[in-house]
Write a structure and sequence with these properties.
The protein has 341 residues and is of the alpha/beta class. It has two domains: 231 residues, Rossmann fold; 103 residues, Rossmann fold. The chain contains 13 helices and ten strands. The strands form two sheets. It has a six-stranded mixed sheet with strand order 1-2-10-7-8-9, sandwiched between helices. A four-stranded parallel sheet has the order 5-4-3-6, sandwiched between helices. Helix 7 crosses helix 9 and helix 8 crosses helix 9. The protein starts with a helix and ends with a helix.
Amino acid sequence: MTPDRFAALRKRIAAIPRIPLALRPTPMVEAKRLARQLGGPRIFVKRDDLTGIALGGNKLRNLEFRLAHAVAQGADTIIVGLDLQSNSARQTTGAANSLGLRTVLVLEGAPPAALQGNLLLDHLLGADVRLARDAAEQRAMLDAAADEVRAAGGRPYMMSDDPMFEMGSALAYLDATLEMLEQLAPQGVAPRAFYLSSGGKGQAGMALARAALGADFAVRGVTASRRHDVPTRTAAIANRTAEKLGLDARVSPDDVINTDAFVGLDYGIPTEAGNEALLLFARHEGVLLDPVYTGKAAACLIADIRAGLFGAEDAVVFVHTGGMPAIFTWSEALLAAARGQ
């Protein structure tokens, strides 16, 4: 992993249209007390929950590419279909606000008894929030929203349909991987593995970085749902991104490590292991995770450490992708977990 390879990758990334949105570089901090508690390797936490706009999170890195594409097309309204408590919805609305763009969110899910978590923030940020009962209704509502904008003389950008929706994530985390390695190198740290919550998009960038650099670190993704065949999806996104950048490197599904063992009952439902991980990070490092994404990814990291996958001389990196508004959505369950310890 020579400086020349880093510079060459950065040059290719810089050729892709991008709008600065995130506070970068985000901190890389060593979790010494947590490592002592677990009796395992050195643990570093990449604080991508601290990217800035609308409480931050990993999506702001992705949106630098996604919204650059929208602005280049002359859009004045961003339309996107996501889940009811989507972190992406919150960050998209906040980022669009910073660019003077309107946002229409078509969110799949039943109307809640009370506005809380990300959904509350979507309203505070001023998004036009519309709820769909299922994927079919969501699709129809997305198309209807675009028609409304055009009929009123506006210029909609259907983010859900654009290839940059997936590729933006891969580009962002290809770049973020370079950032992380550069932060660790002055400390003489060569990580054995990176852990992150991923359904395939962000992990695609990290897998591509590994291939392009010829690196030997592992990228261990932890999916929050069983919606996708993540290894196949990750490889496909990584390879489309490589083609976009003119890179020869390719990623095979066999190269992708991603587990659904920590999903639990279903997407969006906290687990005992995830809640334990959340409390361990909070009480030993003062770092807050969420019970839907980062808590479950941290549970995988903790399980691997307890299983003896790493020695005391090793170093691992936990990529904190944000998502803390979900804490308030699941306040009663988390409080019960906290009282049980």
